[in-house]
Amino acid sequence: MKFLSLTITKNTLHIQEKEQQNLIAEQTFTFSDFEFPKTVDALANQIKEQFSAANGAIFNDIPTDFYTENTKVTPLNVNVENLIKQFSEILNLPILTSFEANATSDLIAAFKKKAEYLTWNLDYFGYTPGKEEYSTESLLTIGNGFMGLRGTIPEMTLTKDHYPATYIAGLYNEEQSEVAGQIVENEDFVNTPNNQYINIQVAGTDEWLSLEQSTLHYLHRNLDLKSGLFTSHMIIEDSKQHQIKITAQKIVNMAQMNNYCIKYSITPLNFSKSITVKTATDGSVYNFNVERYRNLTAKHFHVTQLIADKNKTMIEVQTNQSNITIQQNTTITGDFFEANVVKNSISEELIEQKITFNAKQNNTYAMEKQVQVKTSIAEKNWASPSVPAISFETEFSESKKAWAALWKKADIQVTGDLMSQKLLRIHTYHLFVSASPFNNNELDVSVTARGLHGEAYRGHIFWDEIFILPFYIIHFPETAKQLLMYRYNRLGKAKENAKENHYEGAMYPWQSGLDGSEDTQKLHLNPLNGEWGEDHSILQRHVSLAIAYNIWMYWNNSNDDQFIKEYGAEMLLEIANFWRSATTFDPISNRYSIDKVMGPDEFHEGYPNCSESGLKNNAYTNLMVVWLFEELENILSLLNTQERDILFNKTGITKENLEQMNDMRKRLSIEINEDGIIAQYEGYFNLKEIDWAQAKAKYGNIYRMDRILKAEGRSPDEYKVSKQADTLMLFYNLNKEKIDEIFEELGYTLPTDYLEKNLLYYLNRTSHGSTLSRIVHAQLAEEVAFHDLSWELYQEALYSDYRDIQGGTTAEGIHTGVMAATIYVTLTTYAGIDIKKKNLMIQPNLPKNWTDMTFTVEHKGIHYQLTISNHSVQIYASQDTMIIIKNQPYHIQADTKTTIPY
Question: For the Glycoside hydrolase family 65 N-terminal domain, which residue ranges apply (predicted)?
Answer without folding.
Answer: 131-376
